[in-house]
Amino acid sequence: MKITKVEPILCDGGWWPWVFAKVETDEGLVGYGECGDNRAMNLGVAGCIRDFAEILVGQDPRPVEKLYADMYRLARQSTGGVAQKAIAGIDVALWDIKGKALGVPVYELFGGPHRDKIRVYWSHCGTYRARYPEILGTPPIETMDDITKLGKEVVRRGYTALKTNIVVPGKPAYVIGTLDGNIDKTIIDAVVKLIGTFREAVGDSVDICIDLNFNFKTEGFIKLARAVEPFNLMWVELDTYDPDALLQLKQSTTTSICSAESIYLCRGYRPFLERHALDVAMVDVPWNGLTESRRIAALADMYEIQIAPHNYYSHLSTFISSQLCASVQNVKIMETDVDSAPWRDDIISELPQIENGYMILPKKPGIGAELNEKEIAKHPWPNPSRPAPPNIFSGR
Ligand SMILES: [Mg+2]
After folding, report:
1. Ion ligand 1 residues within 5 Å by Cβ
2. How many CB atoms lie within 10 A of CB 377?
3. Cα(261) to centroid of ligand 1, in Å?
4. 213 CA distance to ligand 1 centroid (A)?
5. Ligand 1 center to residue 138 CA distance, Å?
6. Ligand 1 centroid to 374 CA: how many Å?
7. How far apart are the CA of 165 and the centre of ligand 1, in A?
């Protein structure tokens, strides 16, 4: 079997694109991976996928880790970032082909499955409804009563955990972010009110997380993690590139700390793990690939730390991340977005089967689902007919 074509596919995801890597072979097998870059460098990721095609076309797709090493070698003066996302997307597409060629799910190739279902949480709970209600067609978030209703919807739909951001109800609602990293009482009060309202709505048996992203410095993260201690969160999540700053935070609060979604490769995770600077290591499979994500999970396991896949993309990524969850032992829970662009269901052959807050492990060969390229063609990116969404980095 030989690789005949490697190309990116971009699809309008509502407010940012979903970016896919497609690998074709001379035997008709096609593999898909996903590797979107939020609102940022998606054309760069697509360009890198084309760059890697040069060394892949003509090769047998099945020695996946060898091809991963070839791609890494080609890009080793640009490690991480856009190049790594392209490598990861292609890596997953290659595993997809290998699984299909052998007629087994990818986790079978890794000695799995470790589990037949994966606990998931409702991510960006309220966040996307606050930012993009017209695209989603969801109820507005105008008052704290709407947060209560949303919390009860989470429970009614069977989820046992949710994650939100600093959502402030209103007309329109908004999500607090900062440009300067400063914390103040207004922000602390908003977080306490939001989390308190969710806790009241969902009860004590549903887990709650809040993601603060890169919005604060260590001082602000510490103040917020301490402020939510009474609510017994599953975790406070944040992003930082300084493992010592993260350790300082972890040692300053009783709240569990999740981080590292923006970290690449075992080399990137090592300083965080060897300091035990986090309680849960977020791992982005579309950015690390299955090859490297499994290594990161194994490294985390050595330090007695659970992983949680970072998964805020299309359904394909949910299938991809489920393959990791089935392939390693130390999984805490998997992210999943319930609210999304309405056509997310149309662009894929299968939908994730989620029952009572768990995703049932896919059984089909490869990743477990195929992209529907005809439907994707109806939603091109860039999409000139869609006005630019509000700038989510513009502070409050
Ligand atoms: Mg996050």
Report:
1. 211, 237, 261
2. 11
3. 6
4. 6
5. 22
6. 32
7. 9
Q: Which two tokens stand for residue 126?
A: 């309220």
CA distance 313 to 310: 9
Handedness of CA 163, 166, 172, 178 (dihedral sign): negative
User: How many angstroms separate the alpha carbon of residue 164 from the centre of ligand 1?
Assistant: 10
Residue in this structure with the two tokens 């392939």, named with its chain if needed: 327
Whole-angstrom Cα distance, residue 222 to residue 283? 23
CATH code, 20 = 3.30.390.10
Beta strands in 135-264 (DSSP E): 161-164, 167-168, 174-175, 207-211, 235-237, 257-259
Q: Are residues 182 and 267 in the same domain?
A: yes
Instruction: Please check whether residues 48 and 118 belong to one and the same domain.
Output: no
Which CATH number fits the domain that encloses residue 299?
A: 3.20.20.120
User: How far, in Å, from the CA of 279 to the mean position of ligand 1?
Assistant: 14
**Ligand 1 centre distance from Cα of residue 98 (Å):** 31
Q: Give residue 138's identity as a one-letter amino acid code.
A: T
Phi, psi of 16 (to 5 degrees): -150, 165
Reading the chain (396 residues) residue by residue, the pLDDT tens digits are 999 999 999 999 999 999 999 999 999 999 999 999 887 889 999 999 999 999 999 999 999 999 999 999 999 999 999 999 999 999 999 999 999 999 999 999 999 999 999 999 999 999 999 999 999 999 999 999 999 999 999 999 999 999 999 999 999 999 999 999 999 999 999 999 999 999 999 999 999 999 999 999 999 999 999 999 999 999 999 999 999 999 999 999 999 999 999 999 999 999 999 999 999 999 999 999 999 999 999 999 999 999 999 999 999 999 999 999 999 999 999 999 999 999 999 999 999 999 999 999 999 999 999 999 999 999 999 887 766 655 555 443
**201 CA from centroid of ligand 1 (Å):** 23
Q: Within a domain: residue 300?
A: yes
